[in-house]
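Sample intake — Transposase IS701-like DDE domain-containing protein
Collected from: Candidatus Acidiferrum panamense
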Amino acid sequence: MACWNALFDQARGAFAQQRTAERARTLALSALTCLGRRTLSGLLCTAGQQFRDWSAAYRLFERERLDSQALWPVPLHSVLKTLPPGRPVVALLDDTLLRKRGHHIAGTSWRRDPLGPHFADNFIWASRFLQISLALPEDPAAFASAARAIPIDLQHAPSPRKPSRRADAQQWQNWRLASAASTISRRGAERLTHLRHAIDQSTDGASRSLLVCADATFTNCTVLRDLPPRTILVGRIRKDARLYALPTAEEENRGRGRRRCYGQLLPTPEQWRRDEALPWQSVRAFAAGNFHEFQIKCITPLRWKHAGGERQLQLLIVRPIAYRRRKGAHLDYRNPAYLICTDPTLAAEQILQSYLWRWEIELNFRDEKTLLGFGQPQVRSDAAVRTTATFFVFAYALLLLALENCHLAHGPLPRPRWQRPRLRRSYSRITTPQAISLLRADLWASALQLPNKNGFATLHNYATKPFLIHNSLQSAVLYASG
């Protein structure tokens, strides 16, 4: 609790008044410790303010009495202070959808459901958000180690409303321009430029390189051609991408016409993977709770005509990993991965480990939606939608940072037998539900008048028939995981 409060005090500049900052602190702690739905009324009930005037809490977000952009330097600088000097900053970029029902909520529209089946396109009414998280390694001195993603930026990314059929030509032209400027790849390129500028403003930030890991949504010409300086992009590409070799000296100096940028056409990534003449290399990296030996192929330098332009790229092919669904079942294989890197000199071990950390932002989305109530506040205006989403994710980022900074002397309660780690997956870290339980125990222990939270309960032998359930408020509150 002390670490969380110290981090929140650093965001005092985002609030115009002290009472507004204290009200926001109360709502942030309520968002983390609430036992029900994370609506604004639910947060007020958690703080014991359900019988007071609730309009001030709604005006905090409705009238934007907090600067959303002034909150993010707190987790950003905290992560940069943890990393060793000169260590590259690994950023994870991705977008997510929040399902909605109200058609009057600002920024909602029909979106393609990413969880739908592959043979059909399902559409859902949802809001779209773009998030950037920084990877905080467990061992900052080593490239191959576990990492936890800390959110440092969140942006509402709606699409402009399509004009009616009776609109004039100027309105349609304005809509086309606004649609091109609001694509998710264009917004991602803008946020990367903003992040690069924020890192340069920090201490020793200009000497750090920014390594961005993204999926195929952001591996296109919009992002590749607008990368800021000292920024490296690692993303997935198609298996049939058209790659070219660098032109030879004879091809560049033909004497007539434009200077040639591309050489001969190279095999596709899938053809490189099937080529037995190109040997596989073994690389050690951390993934899925343990260290694994990955088989990769590395081809460099090359160019990608349709997206990379004149950039010299590096192709990394990751061999499919074998697994069994159950003991004694036949051997299955996962899909291969084809990664492109804008730095042809970067080590293959660093490229692979950084991209494996990209899965941590998916865990961020799961925790924010299922545990933190991301998107549950029932607000409709554009300002309230943007501010509440930023506020909830900011409180979640401070929780993860407090967990890393407090250096707990012991872990939480032991897991049940069916949740204990297996021998093959011995690595276990404190999860987000356990961190929330520890925060509840630290916050509510004095209110429940617990002299010792770690003591064992005294067992009594009753001669009569025991109760079906004991009304233990202490255990229900301190160890609740909902």
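Post-analysis note: The chain has a mean pLDDT of 87.
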